[in-house]
Design a protein that fits this description.
The protein is mainly α. The protein has one domain (about 5-470). It contains 20 helices and no strands. It has helices at about 5-40, 45-60, 65-75, 80-110, 115-125, 125-140, 145-170, 175-195, 205-240, 245-275, 280-310, 310-320, 325-335, 335-350, 355-375, 380-405, 415-445, 450-470, 475-495, 500-505.
Length: about 500
């Protein structure tokens, strides 16, 4: 491996750890905030804001028109690219705010949610705020400055956490969530721009615009249909079942899938940045893909099974009474979470190779599958919707994997399936005793809190034991590489882990 490749790999792994640390902090705050807010707010409050963020989140896709990934992917980036990108984002951010204000009444009539109009009007102001720092964030990703991004995102969400809980406690109901979003966006935007300032000069260079829009239009198409797929179930629930079921389903998703999706987003962005640097070398791209997919499988599969086993207790602890209808959707979503996260690795590879329109076509099918699955499933309640959406996850993973096989011809279906074998074994070893432990504790009448706490501790100690004692042939070559690279980085920062990873290497 050349010195340049080693440098990129080192920065990618170090950045991955920084991003995961930041996302772990966000996930922890998210779980705590969900637990507290679920006791202060009603499902209707959550459902109302969820409906509004479906709309604003959808329109936000167009605020940069795919410019961000273009700034990361381009081999040569000029000042005119940056100034043109900033101008475009500011224009679209302001235009989309006006669009929301003009259509708020119609959107409220579609969902039939009272007070949705006023929430939309308020959240529309976030578009121009976020536009200021969008270019800064893309440039930070291009420079692999993950540490700065992680800190900005963590402190941004901390603002949401504090403001949301404070105003909920004061009785501001759904407005407390809106205030939290403002705190998040303002802090995040300020920190990102401080970390990566750029010229605020407004102007458009025709050549730069053509280059940015050529790549960005394909990315925007992908984002459009991907967002429709990710939020299609929410739209169906909000339109046909109402705000309370939407609030219940949304909390079930945020409690389980959102944390894992944050992890997938981190690996996706780190992989995309690294793969873009190596886009001409298929051999290195294949190695990067294998390692990324193995990392996702090793992280998500054990977590998914753990979540399925403790679904009832997790809902009881973090949401409290009145949320029991969230248990079954929670379990269904957990069972196919690996497909929802793993497809991102295929997506990263294709975008790094500039195959944005081929990705977009597959996302069209994905969106249609989610909408049709959710529409049919709504006749059977929230669990039916979850099943229909889960089937769409599996289909999309297969479609994106097929594209990967076309980009990396040396890979095969069997070689990709083999990447999941170590994760399946690890998942079984980590969770078989958790299953019996949970059933035993439930049979003697322990509280849900004690069951979750004891199971989580047992799970964490089991992870450390497997890293230290499980022979290398069970981890696979990619798994061993991941353990060694993460171990080398962590032991420099956390001294007590040194013996653990030294012993792990001895067993490997």
């Amino acid at each position: 491996m050349s010195e340049t490749s080693k440098h990129i790999t080192k920065k990618s792994v170090d950045g991955l750890l920084w991003m995961l640390t930041g996302k772990a902090g966000i996930a922890t705050l998210r779980v705590i905030s969900v637990s507290i807010l679920a006791r202060l707010l009603s499902p209707e409050d959550f459902g109302l804001v969820q409906a509004a963020t479906i709309v604003t989140g959808f329109l936000e896709l167009f605020s940069m028109f795919g410019i961000g990934p273009a700034l990361i992917q381009f081999k040569e980036l000029t000042k005119s690219h940056i100034s043109t990108a900033f101008t475009i984002t500011m224009f679209f951010g302001s235009f989309l705010a006006l669009m929301v204000w003009a259509t708020a009444d119609w959107i409220e009539a579609f969902f039939q949610f009272e007070n949705l109009h006023s929430v939309l009007i308020a959240l529309a102001l976030l578009f121009p705020i976020r536009s200021i720092s969008s270019v800064s964030q893309s440039l930070l990703f291009r420079h692999l400055a993950y540490r700065k991004i992680a800190k900005a995102e963590f402190f941004g969400f901390l603002g949401y956490f504090v403001i949301g809980i404070v105003f909920s406690s004061l009785g501001h109901r759904y407005w407390s969530l809106v205030y939290g979003y403002f705190a998040n966006y303002i802090i995040l935007s300020a920190l990102l721009f401080y970390a990566q300032p750029h010229s605020l000069k407004v102007g458009i260079n025709r050549k730069s615009l053509k280059e940015l829009m050529g790549f960005g239009s394909g990315v925007t198409m992908t984002y459009f249909f991907n967002y429709l797929a990710m939020k299609g179930d929410y739209i169906i629930i909000g339109r046909f079942l109402g705000s309370a079921p939407l609030g219940i389903y949304g909390r079930a998703y945020n409690l389980m899938a959102a944390s894992a999706s944050l992890f997938g987003h981190v690996v996706d962005m780190v992989s995309f940045s690294a793969m873009s640097r190596k886009q001409e070398d298929l051999e290195k791209l294949e190695i990067a893909y294998r390692r990324s997919m193995s990392l996702v499988a090793l992280a998500i599969l054990p977590f998914s099974i753990f979540a399925i086993i403790l679904a009832k207790e997790i809902i009881d602890v973090f949401l409290g009474e009145g949320w029991s209808l969230a248990v079954l959707p929670f379990q269904v979503l957990a069972s196919t979470l690996i497909f929802r996260v793993a497809y991102k690795m295929n997506d990263s590879l294709a975008r790094a190779k500039g195959q944005v329109f081929r990705v977009a076509r597959r996302h069209v099918i994905y969106a249609c599958a989610v909408l049709s699955g959710a529409f049919v499933g709504q006749y059977f309640g929230l669990a039916g919707i979850a099943v229909g959406v889960a089937a769409a996850f599996v289909l999309h993973f297969l479609l994106m994997t097929h594209l990967t096989l076309q980009i990396l011809p040396k890979l095969s279906w069997m070689s990709i399936l083999n990447l999941f074998k170590p994760a399946l074994l690890i998942s079984f070893l980590l969770n078989i005793h958790i299953f019996f432990l949970v059933n035993f504790m439930a049979s003697i009448g322990l509280s849900s809190f004690l069951i979750v706490a004891a199971s989580a501790l047992c799970f964490m100690f089991s992870v450390l034991a497997l890293i230290r004692y499980l022979p290398s042939q069970y981890w696979g070559s990619e798994g061993i590489w991941i353990i060694q690279m993460i171990g080398d980085n962590l032991t420099k920062k956390i001294s007590f882990l040194d013996k653990l990873f030294v012993q792990s290497k001895a067993n490997g």
